[in-house]
Amino acid sequence: MKTAIIITGELRFKGRVHFNRFCRLIKGYDVFLCTYPDYEPLAQKITKKYILLPREGQAPRASGRMALAAGIPERMQTNIFQWLHLDNLLKEYLPELEQYDNILKLRTDIAFTRGWVNEAHKLRNSFTVKGNSVITHSLQSLEKNTLYATSDILFYASSSHFIKTFKDFYSDIYGKYWRKCINYYPLNFDSILKSECGNFHLGALVGDIKGVRFNWLVLPSFIIDEIGCPCHPPESGPFREWLHDSFTSTKPTEPPSPPHLRVRDCPQLLVNFPLFKAVIQRNYDYLINLNSNYADADIEFVQPRIPLRERCKQNPDRFASEQIFAVNAFEHGVVKNSAIPLTQLAPMRHKFSFK
Asked: Does 345 share its domain with 279?
């Protein structure tokens, strides 16, 4: 099984020890990299297959690796840059990447789990599990049409599915996904029902994400209220009678409880993925029909994450990368948890200056 590793954006390393450990992790794999000109010395030490993208305000070179990047849209939101980098890599190296079995998108500033690090130390930092590298061990026997992810921080799939999922993602951000962070976008409910994400609350940090942030998806408000949360479980909460009546009406009414008791306003909303799928399944026919006429539907759609909801109201052009990553992942297939263990992104990573 041949695996290609893709690295995009800033090459953040705390120091030489961090850099050397990362190089041991990716040793033996073909690496494709897109970064900025000031990281070129590091890029050259990692791989021969790299391209350089000018930072905002910099003019690209007339030829060479930077020529591929035609420029960066004015005032691009910073969390879109990673998708511009990935888009450039897929355009430049597509024929080569299609020859691999799997593709893994990795970052340099990931803090892996203590248990894995300890095991690596016992094995003299060989980064192996049962005789295989941690990457090879985790990427064995990948299922077709399935993306394995820890949100948009680390994700992998068979090369065909990876390319299918992301080859148009950057252009789709400015096309079909723009301004969809608080507005409904038709979801692939069949993919959601086949997926296996974990349970985590709305504000979970990266290391707690299992799969994608399904609890950031914009949904009809009455669907969210039925899903419930630890504070308002639907089985015993004040919404039970109202929920029953809601499904007999094409236009659900507001629940008979004070606004502060609405499930959709609870910060612990949608923590349970099996329950999330159960509610989707129970309302499947309604939701499939909704996908075909949502623009004319006289119902309320809700972005569950309250801070994001409020920020998007103030700035409709705000882009929530992890949310739209989830929408795109479900649109193209099944999503499952990554088998590569990590804790978080490295603390103080923005101040790393090793080059």
From this structure: no
Q: What is the rounded CA–CA span in Å between residue 29 and residue 49?
A: 12
Q: Alpha helix locations (H) across the chain?
A: 16-26, 40-46, 81-97, 114-122, 134-138, 159-166, 169-174, 189-194, 221-227, 240-246, 273-282, 284-293, 306-314, 321-332
User: What is the phi-psi region of residue 117: left when phi exceeds 0, alpha when psi lies from -120 to 50, beta otherwise?
Assistant: alpha
Tokens at 255, concatenated: 């629940």
* Identity of the amino acid at 45: K
- Closest by CA position to 203, among listed 266, 277, 150, 148: 266
Tens of pLDDT, residue by residue over 103-140, are 999 999 887 654 443 343 333 333 444 444 778 778 88
Phi and psi at 28, nearest 5°, equal 95, -5
How is residue 277 written in tokens?
């799928």
Q: How far apart are CA 200 and CA 111, in angstroms?
A: 19
Which H or E element spans position 32?
strand 30-35
Instruction: Specify whether 155 is located in the same domain as 208.
Output: no
Tell me how many domains the chain contains. Answer: 2
The whole-model pTM stands at: 0.82
193 and 144 belong to one structural domain: no
Residues 296 and 195 in one domain: yes
3-state secondary structure 273-311: HHHHHHHHHHCHHHHHHHHHHHHHCCCCEECCCHHHHHH
